[in-house]
Amino acid sequence: MTKLITFVKIVLGDNMECIFCKIIKGEIPCFKIYEDNDVLAFLDINPDSDGHTLIIPKKHFADLDDIDLNTLSKINEAAKHIKNILENKLKCDGISLLQNNGCVQDVKHYHLHLKPNYKNKQSIEILKHKEFISNPKDIYEKLKEN
Ligand code: 5GP
Ligand code: ZN
Question: 35 and 41 in contact (C-beta within 8 Å)?
Answer without folding.
Answer: yes
